[in-house]
Every structure is written in C-alpha cells, then in structure tokens.
Specification:
mainly alpha, 112 residues, 2 domains
Length: 112
C-alpha cells in the first residue's frame, strides 16, 4: 500500500504543479487583451465600411436630388416641341428666301 500511497501523492503533486503552470500560463497570456484587440480591429473595420456606405449613399442622394422629375420633363418636352415648330417655321422662311434669291439671280443674269 505504501507504493500506492506514494504514487497517489506523486500524482497529486504533478496535478497541482500542472494546474499551477496552466494558471500562470493563462494569466501571462492575457487572453482578454487579445480579444479586446481583435474586437477593436473588427469595430474599426465595421466603422470604415459604414463610413464608406454613408459616402456612397450621400453621392446617390445628391445625384437623385439633381435628377429631373416628371413635371420638369414634361415642361422640357413642351419646350422642345415649341422649338421644333419654330425651327420648322424658320426652315420654311429660309426656303422662301432661297427661292427669292435664286429668282433675283436668274433675273440679274438674264437681263444684263
């Protein structure tokens, strides 16, 4: 029995030393600091992504603010139709003027 008692005592001592060594290693490793560091890095990354999304959204909002709405497009369409009619009238006037100039040229060439 004394062998069993010495083996049991040896096992208790080894267990206590291993537990103490593990505790010291864990304390010195300071996992809370590593986790905080990783957490801070992740938070920074997420804040950067959020800021980037905010900038993109602001750019889209600005672009939409300067986009014409249906009323402005309808007004522009009316203006374009009016300009088209005015251009048609100017073409007709230019055609008439051209014909008059051709007649005057012909008259001047033939009656000299």
């Amino acid at each position: 029995m004394s062998d069993f008692a010495s083996i049991a005592y040896f096992m208790v001592v080894v267990n206590a030393l291993a537990t103490t060594a593990l505790g010291i290693f864990t304390f010195l490793r300071a996992p809370g600091i590593e986790i905080k560091r990783e957490n801070d890095a992740a938070r920074k990354r997420l804040q950067d992504e959020l800021h980037e999304q905010h900038l993109r959204l602001s750019a889209i909002e600005t672009a939409l603010k300067h986009t014409a709405n249906s009323e402005e497009l309808a007004e522009l369409e009316g203006t374009l139709k009016a300009l088209s009619k005015e251009l048609d009238g100017m073409r007709e006037a230019m055609r008439n003027t051209h014909q008059a100039v051709v007649r005057v040229e012909d008259y001047l060439r033939n009656h000299r």
